[in-house]
Amino acid sequence: MSQPLPVQAMEQAHPLRAVPLKAVPLESVPLKVVPPESVPLRVVPPESVALEAEPFETVPLQAVLASAGDFLESLTRCVLEVLAGVRDIDQLARWVSDDVYKNLSKRVILSSRARQVTGQRSMRPSFSIGRTLLSEPLPGVIEGVVIVHGKARTRAVALRIERFGARWRASAINVL
């Protein structure tokens, strides 16, 4: 085992080394005081300001169902990738409720253990999204089923999403 080098030998061997910073008194730093009225204000046009989501009564039902359908299909794709082990479950945390997150994390643990026992590795699943069926039992709540066609079988993913501020959030997900 080699002996540590003395400090002078290290300085000669490593000429580019970190030099400790010296403390600078605050009084020596020049400060420039600017009166508030001399600072220019930026005018923001009203159309660029992010507005709160419109109430569901003012948004046409077809527009609500279209945005919900796209969200359901994307969330279904992400959930299947999480269960296959190729996507981290933390990426879904914003889009699902706490109960759904806990249930998904349990299923992720079970599926990863099953892959370890069989010696399989995580592979991106190949599937296509089929038909999406939607219903609106209450304003701001969408229940849907997304049909997923895989190589070996066809599955159905049932989801319930609710309006959470200006976005959708899944309150129930069942992969059948």
How would you portray this structure in words?
- With 176 residues, the chain is of the alpha+beta class.
- The chain has a domain at 61-175: Roll (Nuclear Transport Factor 2, Chain: A).
- It has helices at residues 7-13, 61-84, 98-118; strands spanning 127-138, 141-150, 154-164, 167-175.
- The longest helix has 24 residues, at 61-84.
- The model is unreliable at 48-52 (pLDDT under 50).
List the helices and strands and how they pair.
Blueprint: H1 7-13, H2 61-84, H3 98-118, E1 127-138, E2 141-150, E3 154-164, E4 167-175
Antiparallel strand pairs: 1-2, 2-3, 3-4
Instruction: Tell how many strands the DSSP assignment holds.
Output: 4
CATH topology of the domain at 61-175: Nuclear Transport Factor 2, Chain: A
Low-confidence stretches: 48-52
Query: What is the 3D form?
Result: flat
Strand content: 15-25%
In percent, how helical is the residue content?
Answer: 25-40%
Gap between N and C termini, in Å? 61 Å
Q: In what order do the strands lie side by side in the largest sheet?
A: 1-2-3-4
Overall mean pLDDT stands at 78
Biggest sheet architecture:
4 strands, antiparallel
CATH architecture of the domain at 61-175: Roll
User: Secondary-structure element sequence?
Assistant: HHHEEEE
Q: In the CATH hierarchy, what is the class of the domain at 61-175?
A: Alpha Beta
Compute the number of helices. Answer: 3
Question: What would you report as the Rg, rounded to the nearest angstrom?
Answer: 28 Å
Structural class call reads alpha+beta
